[in-house]
Amino acid sequence: MNNSVENRFFAIVCGALLVFVAPLFVLFLFLSSERADKEIRDHISVLLVANAQALAKPLWDLDEESVTQISATVVSQGAIVKVEVRDQSGQLDVSQSTIPRSFDGKLVQVSRAIIYNTVDGPKNLGSISVYYPALGLFSGLKQEEVVFISIFIFAVLTVFGTALIGNRFFVIQPLMRLTAAIEATRQLGSRHHVDWQSNDEMGRLAHSFNEMQTKLESEEKELKFAHRRATDIYNLTPAMLFSLDEEDRITAVSDYWLLATGYNRAAVIGRNFADLVTPTTRDKFVKRRRAESGLTVTVKFVCLDGRAMDVLIMESEAGAGAHDRLSLSVMTDVTELKASEDRNHRQAITDHLTGLLNRQGFEAVLDNKIAAADAAGQELACLFVDLDRFKWINDNMGHAAGDMALVELVERLRGHLAPSDEAARLGGDEFAILLPAKDAERRARAMCEQIASIFETPFAPDMHLSASVGIAIYPHHAATAAELLQKSDMAMYAKKRDGKNGAQLFDNAMLDRARSRAEIEANIEAGLVDDWFEAFLQPIVNLNGRGIAGFEALMRLNHPQKGLMPPAEIISVAEETAKIVRVGNVIMEKAIANLAKISRISGMQDTYLAVNFSPLQFEPALPARLAAFVGRHGIRPERIVVEITEAVLMHDNPEIRMIVTELRRFGCRIALDDFGTGYSSLSYLNRFPVDIIKIDQSFTRAINDGDDDVRQKSRMLIEGITTLSHKMDCTVIAEGIETEEECRTLHQMGLDYGQGYLFHRPQHAATLIEELMASQSAVARAS
């Protein structure tokens, strides 16, 4: 209803009248009626008293006529409409009534006994009863009260009417105008204003509504302008923009999108975007869009002319609800970029020198090859190829010659590869070959023979190469790609250790060796952290008199559970892992500290300490470190002998030459260890400042060999080395002396010193010191 507010106001006012005014009016009428009834009763009471006295004598005398006259007089009084007079005996019953026939109201009866005073006293002769109509609410009103009520009702009606009229003009009318403006705005879409001016709440409401309409109208204009501008930007932006609904249907496309794809707007609006994507990438687009709210995906888009271009689609949510999903997407042509990425990817996984796969590409192909082998029910052989002596070629003939050899090797290898085979250069001189076959081991061994034949022809004059090949078979030896490559690598290193130039099939014993090596590595690290390394000392004696001239420091690892561990494997693993530097520093410091303790023993003040150094220890900081150790313990530098092997000197490294010279200048002596076992030992005497020559123990054992020829040649070599060394002012020490015969023979040959089990075994420093002190005490007692 349009006037529902007015009707509710009318109902509220009427309700207020009924609740508050009507009860008061009814109460007033009730009180007026009570008052009038009381007045009538009082009048009748007085009248009955008087007439009861007047009737006493006639009723005593049974004078009916007099009784009737008196009754008629009573009934004519005021409100009385009926009188009844009865005596006690029932002989007299007079009734007078003025009640009209049409009266059907209620009568109120008032009675009084008639008493006659005789000589015998009062006698009750009978009763008189009068009747008057019962008064209603309005029956007792006086004229002035009627006037008052009329004025009151008029005032109430006036207020009621005024309220309705005021509500109509000052509330209903502006509300109807406001409603009309709102309805017009809703139906016509334009912003209508309320024509109402006042200073009250309705005026402020109308003013606020008009301001709101003005602001909304301004915002709508801005929105329309922004929409037009967005539409212009959407169409004029040089980017392929499009929008999709929740069903992946195209709802809008930009002009540039149409220009780039060749379609017209009417042909594509409403089409499913996936229909415009090639079947090979359609599933990817659909799955990614369902899974992601704002996807980024690259697909192939089919243009109107049938041309397929690689496009990068980046989508963002433009609006979302319970059942709608609008998006804004930009489509970028990345065909050239994709081609460039493919080229870069090929370059990234290809070795630039040989054209084979590099390590990254090989690892990616390896997974695919394993999957293909599983699908075809085949095996897969992995050959890990490492060239022998290739470092020598790079160092002596130059890297260009090495690169040429690698290229030539790959050219020769390609002729032996089947289309299903895959070869890669993993780095440096390491290669890997994958061979899928039903019997992969047989195929691998055949390929190894072919690889061996490749190296029969020199790669250049005086450039002879060979290869060590490790073989692992999937799934017999490995279950994963990484494991297959690892185990073929282990097999290759096993072949390297066994003499190079050949092939080795992986077996589980290699795992045991690998675990053993890993255990040694862990022990080395734990030994460095927990101080398990000790410097054992083996005395070096003068062959003429057997007096101790010095001590050689030997590394030992004293494991808390396993005890002393073999040093050869520990040194080998420490050198391979470059931990030999840390180990060597520990042994050097402990050995110098032990020499300081031994120097306190009488007669041992001039003994020297020989310390073995790995090639990796010859770093620029070595002279300063050694100087710090000897300075800390008060040892003269000339008492330190630095033992080096041909492995240190063979490459004639200028840095190593400089460090050796610096140690010599500092005062240390230089000893050439294992002399005679290398290819060019004599040349080192000329190129390096050597003070001591240590003849290898293999010559020592051979001087008393049962074969006369071997014995004779060994003695000649030792004599020659000794003579030459003495000519160059070098001291000669024989290693590995175990028998008196060997000692006597070497002494006769002119050697200066010797060491071996015949004299002393390597011992813990504390034990050796106890022996030396005990020996000194025994000599003192004997003298």
Automatic annotation (TrEMBL):
The chain crosses the membrane at residues 6-31, 146-166. Residues 226-287 form the PAS domain. Keywords: Membrane, Transmembrane, Transmembrane helix. Residues 517-776 form the EAL domain. PROSITE patterns: EAL, GGDEF, HAMP, PAS. Residues 378-508 form the GGDEF domain. InterPro entries: Biofilm_reg_signaling, EAL_dom, EAL_sf, GGDEF_dom, HAMP_dom, Nucleotide_cyclase, PAS, PAS-like_dom_sf. This is EAL domain-containing protein.
